[in-house]
Design goal:
By secondary structure, this protein is an alpha+beta fold. It has 3 domains: 95 residues, no CATH class; 60 residues; 122 residues, no CATH class. It is 39% helix and 16% strand. The protein is built from 10 helices and 8 strands. A hairpin with a 2-residue loop joins strand 6 and strand 7. Helix 7 runs antiparallel to helix 8 and helix 8 runs antiparallel to helix 9.
Length: 318
């Protein structure tokens, strides 16, 4: 880790080089000076800061507290203050005209990865040499911003967020370091083939026994007692997803396929995301119960993950 390394002009147009650095690092300070943004627009001491004037420049830089950065991402590339008051660059934004609000200006410099505003979505994927990991609709300034869709990519150690218009043209791009859960998924995927040899093909009876532990039974009880605002149809839909998951896990375990177990868990979580977006069914208690259930199912199958790791975290929105 550097402690505010000297700045060189050759670093000026490599925005990814700023990620993970203290906002007091010479490289970061020089970039902010170029954009006339030496003071934060938003500041919560030791917790969060937002720099840049997106309305005027199309450029934005976000930073989070040193402790938070270490907890969610890892060791920073540089620190300057060296205390909890230091803030570490965690995201950089580049926006086209009107994206930061009606009448806002476009970022005028080169975009990362050779991207251009107006690139069709297919060209974005091509320039990034990656397929989108997640596609969704945008909630940015409805009716005011041209952004309609958000596609997330993993490119090396970076998360690249492409914001697209209704015509699927690039309107903004955000870059950030991959967080710990995303890196854990990448590492796990690399080890899945070897893990397959440790999957228990005789685990079906134990997995089947977990049908009695599907948490939706308790959800129905809470709904009946008026302890929770839940619709029976929503609960039934979640229960069907969990039964399908058990069937899929039994099949994957019988084939001793760790990749299949991983895919089925992702599929379940994404399906629950869609369900929860419609009805807000899953709150804190339900989330905890689902986590315990999924962990129990995978444990019986012989799937392995790090102690203390939430295996649903890379996909979960609830």
């Amino acid at each position: 880790m550097e402690r505010g390394a000297p700045y060189s002009d050759q670093d000026a147009d490599d925005p990814a080089d700023l990620l993970g650095r203290s906002v007091h690092d010479a490289r970061v300070v020089a970039r902010l000076i170029r954009h006339g943004a030496t003071e934060p627009d938003t500041l919560i001491e030791g917790v969060f800061a937002a720099y840049g004037r997106p309305d005027d420049t199309g450029f934005g830089l976000s930073a989070e507290g040193l402790a938070s950065y270490r907890a969610t991402i890892g060791e920073p590339r540089s620190v300057v203050i060296g205390t909890e008051a230091d803030l570490i660059v965690s995201r950089i934004d580049f926006s086209d005209a009107d994206c930061a609000g009606p009448g806002s200006r476009a970022y005028g410099g080169p975009l990362p990865f050779g991207l251009y505003f107006g690139d069709p979505a297919e060209a974005v994927s091509g320039r990034l040499s990656a397929k989108p990991r997640r596609k969704g609709r945008s909630g940015d300034l409805p009716g005011q911003s041209p952004v309609a869709f958000v596609w997330d990519y993993q490119v090396g150690d970076l998360l690249v967020i492409a914001k697209l218009t209704a015509q699927h043209r690039l309107a903004a791009v955000y870059i950030a370091p991959l967080d710990r859960p995303a890196r854990q998924v990448r590492e796990r995927k690399a080890s899945l083939k070897a893990m397959s040899g440790r999957i228990d093909p005789a685990s079906a009876p134990r997995i089947e026994a977990l049908r009695a532990a599907i948490p939706t039974t308790r959800w129905c009880e809470r709904a009946a007692a008026a302890d929770a605002d839940m619709d029976e149809r929503d609960i039934a839909e979640a229960e069907a997803l969990l039964h399908r998951y058990l069937d899929a896990v039994k099949s994957a375990a019988a084939r001793r396929s760790a990749p299949a177990l991983h895919r089925e868990t992702e599929r379940l979580v994404l399906s629950l995301n869609r369900l929860n977006r419609r009805n807000g069914l899953i709150e804190t208690l339900e989330r905890d119960e689902l986590g315990v259930f999924i962990d129990a199912v995978l444990t019986e199958a012989g799937f392995e993950w790090s102690e203390g790791e939430d295996i649903t975290a890379p996909w979960r929105e609830w």
